[in-house]
Design brief:
The chain is of the alpha+beta class. It has 11 helices and 12 strands. The protein folds into 2 domains: about 90 residues, no CATH class; about 230 residues, Endonuclease/exonuclease/phosphatase (Deoxyribonuclease I, Chain A, 4-Layer Sandwich), CATH 3.60.10.10. Helix 1 packs antiparallel against helix 3 and helix 8 runs parallel beside helix 9.
């Protein structure tokens, strides 16, 4: 009498053999359902955090919500697995998963389609790079910013400062605000054009508001931003994000650029508040440059950058033609370099007074 189990096929001597095809199919099907369950939970969490951004302010929300764009892949895989499992009852869940994937895609696609912008304006190239307290290669940063008019340096340390002096940075950029500091506190704005400090928000990581004046074009404000990352908790993360918003809203008139390491992606609460409350436009979205991932850059071995933390925003008559990332060869961030056009602000029409109104009525 054979002792083979129900899922096993006995050999010629009647001994138990390896599991048969039916048993392997059962195991594969169970694993597929387990994967569907895990991916559905992940996709549902990311969808909820994106649709209801205030959920990001609780518990691990600030960290998990950074993965929101990857909900597209979660829901796509759920749909494919359900279709692979077959069965009439699985068609509707598969279609619902595809619908959820489409919602995520609708948030990403605009980044790959350039907006129409007015022509004209003075071309200005602005770069931003987080140096990781001296880990970035100064030669790589020098090459990448060779044609930049303005460079914002974050986590700018004395060691890197000495290296940049040796490479002639202060001849290239004779105007500057801020300077190096040990650790992560150093921030500087270096410019080919005259620059003056308008405001600053000392917040552990400096936030500078400057006015830059090209000799052959209109002046514009530039906000160099480096708010706290969410590892410090949702309360501090939001508070530092509010500091950036306040700095931008405090200067409502004229062309304005906001650039830096925001420690948040376009899907996250602090950036969405910046867009909604300060009226800025994402340069990557406006130029159709795509979803620019900048962190972590080879910080965890061969892992490619996953998150779009380093960004640029514009407001008023400033238009983004392009924005791209560059290799810093040592920092955990890729740098960004934005090619913009700054146009003159349209004159503000005065509010008609009694005399003006009477004159207008008598025409």
């Amino acid at each position: 009498m054979s002792t083979a189990g129900a899922g096993e096929r006995p050999d010629r001597q009647g001994r138990p053999g390896r599991p048969g095809r039916s048993s392997r199919r059962v195991i594969a099907r169970r694993l597929a359902w387990l994967l569907v369950g895990l991916l559905t939970l992940a996709g549902a969490a990311l969808l909820a955090l994106r649709l209801l951004p205030r959920l990001q302010l609780h518990s691990v929300g600030p960290m998990v919500s950074a993965f929101a764009p990857y909900g597209l892949f979660s829901w796509t895989l759920v749909a494919l697995l359900l279709l692979r499992l077959k069965g009439r009852r699985l068609l509707v869940p598969a279609l619902l998963a595809l619908a959820a994937a489409a919602v995520h895609a609708s948030w990403l696609v605009p980044f790959y389609v350039a907006d129409e912008t007015p022509s004209g304006g003075r071309a200005v190239t602005i770069a931003s790079v987080n140096l990781l307290g001296g880990a970035a290669d100064p030669d790589a940063v020098t090459r990448a910013t060779a044609d930049a008019d303005v460079v914002v340096l974050m986590e700018f340390d004395p060691k890197t400062d000495r290296a940049l002096v040796e490479r002639g940075w202060y001849e290239r950029f004779p105007h500057h605000i801020g300077g190096p500091a040990w650790g992560t506190a150093g921030t500087a704005v270096l410019s080919r054009f005259p620059i003056r400090q308008v405001d600053s928000r000392p917040s552990g990581v400096q936030i500078y508001v400057t006015e830059i004046s090209p000799p052959d074009g209109p002046s514009f404000h530039l906000v160099a931003a480096h708010p706290l990352n969410p590892a410090g908790g949702a309360v501090l993360w939001r508070a530092y994000g509010d500091l950036v918003i306040e700095a931008v809203r405090h200067h409502p008139d004229g062309p304005l650029v906001v650039i830096g390491d925001f420690n948040a992606t376009p899907d996250q609460f602090t950036i969405r508040q910046l867009v909604d409350r300060a009226g800025v436009r994402n340069a990557a979205d406006e130029s159709g440059a795509g979803w620019l991932r900048t962190w972590p850059d080879r910080f965890y071995g061969p892992l490619p950058p996953l998150f779009s933390l380093d960004q640029a925003f514009v407001r008023g008559p400033v238009y983004a033609d392009d924005i791209a990332t560059f290799d810093t060869r040592g920092s955990d961030h890729r740098g960004v370099i934005a090619r913009l056009r700054v146009a003159a602000s349209p004159p503000t029409r005065p509010t008609p007074g009694p005399a003006t109104a009477s004159a207008a009525a008598g025409r």
